[in-house]
């Protein structure tokens, strides 16, 4: 087993553990944005698409690199955009059209 | 290592740190948006560094640049369009679709590696093995996610599609995918083995998800997400790229945890869910009123009296609420009650909606403050001092039968709605939930049934409360 492979395995195992640690603290309220965010992070495969595009020298290689770039681009850009859209909706209290009286009532009940 | 390569590697390390910090900031709503932006910044840096690396390397041809740029621009445009237009009820489909794209891209990266080396010198064991694994997992998540997306969208029937001998077929397909992958790893130049691994994995993805019913979709989406993460990490092994390994492993871990949480919330094993065949599709509400035991019906006016004179109301939303697009109607009713000084909160079961945490997003969209959204563990201790529990479009997750053994929902953690002083259920009919069994909460003496569509029912309740309090 080469040192390169061992290094990669070490990185993989530690990343898995970091992932478990970081994600088990996320509250249920945010599970959908979390999954969407994780979903956009695996759009990092775009890096892979760029690297295979750089080594492609025949029609099959170009075709594969093209579809890979298309898929990965859609994954990463769409993923971050939709995650951002969702997260903007999470508000501590209703800001639009809520009367001040209603706001006080809300915070009053919350204090209990 | 040249100075240039070192800089690129350092950017990759920074990007990986951004992903971890970004995910960490998602553990609270106030910082979550910042987390998403930090993660995106890491992504931009990693991609920019890679483009610089490719340009510096100068092995890329003009055509290579063209396919990369055109592919990226087209894909980004389509992704952005979907992301901006999608309705919040359709988020699970979109996440599935993006997931399919990621899995597909990971498989294609491995395939391209295969093509590039097919005629060249012998392939090392490490690349052969990781390419084989990547082709198999990437293809499986691609086809599986596409089918899951179709089921959620309704283009494919949501109920489990079970054919005689289906379980055997799935077993054979899974075995063929594994055998194909092993043989491909052993003989990395064999096109036949590549075709076998690819075809069997694609077919297995389709066959596996087809058998799984709509109620189990939160688990399926999580699992497919975890698998794509794994595929991306393995792609990192193929092209020896640390940032792919780190990012892929992070996603694999997150998907793994959510899959486990969702399966636990239904008290079913992941394997049992994946073997499929459980439950029906979305209830169409065609069952007639009054099938089963005696229930007490209530009018909007009587229900409004109960609500308006309560001091604590807990709203229990199920997917029926979202299907009827009644999120805004429920928020309006809750605001009316709050203006009267009534404490209102929402009890969210972990599997409410079509993906983990989906119901929270739907209510957040309707401007429900997240401080009112209470997870199951937190709200269950509050039901005993709740005057009225208002159940809208939820069924199996509140069925007390789950506490006994021998029923289809036995052992499933439920919201303890039956401990509230009184219960009002808004429901179109006495139709069953996914588990297809009677809900004894409906025949409980303190429960009143208000038969209506979720949205129409909530609007009627709001109007009745307004009339009552002279608002």
List keywords for this structure.
heterodimer; A: disordered C terminus; B: 471 residues; alpha/beta; Rossmann fold; 3 domains
Write a brief structural summary.
The complex is a heterodimer of chains A (112) and B (471). Chain A has 112 residues and is an all-alpha fold.
Describe this structure in words.
The complex is a heterodimer of chains A (112) and B (471). Chain A has a domain at 30-87. In chain A, 76% of the residues lie in helices and 0% in strands. The model of chain A is unreliable at 97-112 (pLDDT under 50). The longest helix of chain A has 30 residues, at 59-88. In chain A, helix 2 packs antiparallel against helix 4 and helix 3 (45-55) packs antiparallel against helix 4. Chain A has helices at 3-23, 31-41, 45-55, 59-88, 100-111. Chain A contains five helices and no strands. By secondary structure, chain A is mostly helical. Chain B is an alpha/beta fold and 471 residues long. Chain B has three domains: 1-84; 86-282, no CATH class; 300-469, Rossmann fold (3-Layer(aba) Sandwich), CATH 3.40.50. Helix content of chain B is 60%, strand content 7%. A six-stranded parallel β-sheet of chain B has the order 3-2-1-4-5-6. In chain B, helix 14 links the parallel strand 2 (343-348) and strand 3. In chain B, helix 1 runs antiparallel to helix 2 (29-57) and helix 4 runs parallel beside helix 8 (217-238). Chain B is elongated, with a radius of gyration of 26 Å. Mean pLDDT of chain B is 89; it is low at 280-291.
């Amino acid at each position: 087993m080469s040192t390169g492979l061992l290094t990669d395995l070490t990185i993989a195992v530690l990343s898995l553990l970091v992932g478990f640690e970081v994600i088990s603290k996320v509250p249920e309220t945010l599970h959908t944005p979390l999954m969407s965010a994780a979903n956009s992070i695996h759009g990092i495969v775009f890096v892979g698409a760029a690297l295979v595009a750089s080594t492609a020298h025949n029609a099959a290689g170009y075709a594969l690199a093209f579809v890979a770039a298309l898929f990965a681009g859609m994954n990463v850009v769409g993923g971050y955009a939709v995650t951002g859209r969702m997260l903007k909706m999470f508000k501590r209290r209703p800001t639009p059209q809520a009367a001040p009286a209603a706001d006080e009532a809300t915070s009053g009940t919350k204090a209990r | 290592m040249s100075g240039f390569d070192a800089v690129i590697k350092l950017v990759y390390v920074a990007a990986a740190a951004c992903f971890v910090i970004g995910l960490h900031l998602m553990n609270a709503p106030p910082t979550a948006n910042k987390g998403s932006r930090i993660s995106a910044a890491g992504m931009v840096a990693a991609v920019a560094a890679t483009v610089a690396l490719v340009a510096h390397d100068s092995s890329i041809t003009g055509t290579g640049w063209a396919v990369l740029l055109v592919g990226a621009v087209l894909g980004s445009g389509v992704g952005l369009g979907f992301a901006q237009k999608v309705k919040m009820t359709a988020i699970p489909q979109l996440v599935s679709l993006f997931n399919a794209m990621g899995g597909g891209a990971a498989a294609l990266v491995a395939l391209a590696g295969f093509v590039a080396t097919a005629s060249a010198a012998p392939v090392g064991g490490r690349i052969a093995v990781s390419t084989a694994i990547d082709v198999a997992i990437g293809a499986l998540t691609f086809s599986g996610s596409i089918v899951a997306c179709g089921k959620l969208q309704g283009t494919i029937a949501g109920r489990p599609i079970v054919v005689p001998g289906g379980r055997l077929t799935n077993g054979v397909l899974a075995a063929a995918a594994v055998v194909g992958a092993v043989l491909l790893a052993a003989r990395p130049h064999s096109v036949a083995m590549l075709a076998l691994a690819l075809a069997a994995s694609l077919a297995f993805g389709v066959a596996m998800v087809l058998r799984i019913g709509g109620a189990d979709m939160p688990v399926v989406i999580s699992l497919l997400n975890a698998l794509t993460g794994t595929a991306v990490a393995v792609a990192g092994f193929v092209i020896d790229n640390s940032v792919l390994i780190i990012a892929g492993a992070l996603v694999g871990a997150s998907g793994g945890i959510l899959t486990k949480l969702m399966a636990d919330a239904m008290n079913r094993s992941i394997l049992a869910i994946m073997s499929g065949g459980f439950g029906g599709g979305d209830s169409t509400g065609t069952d007639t009123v009054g099938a089963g035991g005696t229930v007490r019906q209530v009018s909007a006016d009587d229900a409004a009296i109960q609500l308006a004179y309560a001091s604590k109301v807990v709203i229990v939303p199920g997917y029926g609420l979202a299907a009827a697009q009644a999120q805004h109607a429920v928020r309006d009713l809750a605001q009316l009650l709050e203006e009267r000084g009534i404490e209102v909160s929402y009890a969210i079961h972990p599997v409410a909606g079509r993906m983990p945490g989906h119901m929270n997003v739907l209510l957040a969209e309707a401007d429900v403050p997240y401080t009112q959204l209470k997870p199951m563990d937190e709200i269950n201790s509050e039901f005993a001092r709740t005057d009225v529990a208002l159940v809208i479009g939820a069924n199996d997750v509140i069925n007390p039968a789950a506490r006994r053994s021998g029923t289809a929902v036995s052992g499933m953690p439920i919201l303890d709605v039956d401990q509230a002083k009184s219960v009002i259920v808004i429901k179109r009919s006495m139709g069953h939930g996914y588990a297809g069994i009677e809900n004894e909460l409906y025949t409980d003496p303190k429960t009143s049934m208000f038969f209506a569509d979720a949205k129409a029912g909530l609007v009627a309740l709001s109007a009745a409360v307004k009339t009552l309090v002279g608002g």
